[in-house]
Amino acid sequence: MSWQAIGIFDSGVGGLTVLRELARTVPQEDTIYFGDTARVPYGTKSPDTVVRYSQEIASFLIKLDIKLLVVACNTASAVALPMLRRSLPVPVVGVIEPGAKKAVEATRSGIVGVIGTSGTIRSSAYSRAIKKLNPSVSVIARPCPLFVPLAEEGWIDNEIARMTARLYLEELQKAGVDTLVLGCTHYPLLKKVIAEVMGSGVTLVDSAEETARTVADILKQKKLLRPEAEQGNHHYYVTDVPAGFIRVGNRFLGGKLGDVYQVSLEDCRIETEKD
Ligand code: DGL
Question: What would the DSSP string read from start to end of the chain?
Answer without folding.
Answer: ---PPEEEEESSSTTHHHHHHHHHH-TT--EEEEE-TTT---TTS-HHHHHHHHHHHHHHHHHTT-SEEEE--HHHHHHHHHHHHHH-SS-EEESHHHHHHHHHHH-SSSEEEEEE-HHHHHHTHHHHHHHHH-TT-EEEEEE-TTHHHHHHHT-SSSHHHHHHHHHHHHHHHHTT-SEEEEESTTGGGGHHHHHHHH-TTSEEEEHHHHHHHHHHHHHHHTT-PPPTT----EEEEESS-THHHHHHHHHHHTS----EEEE-TTT--EEEE--
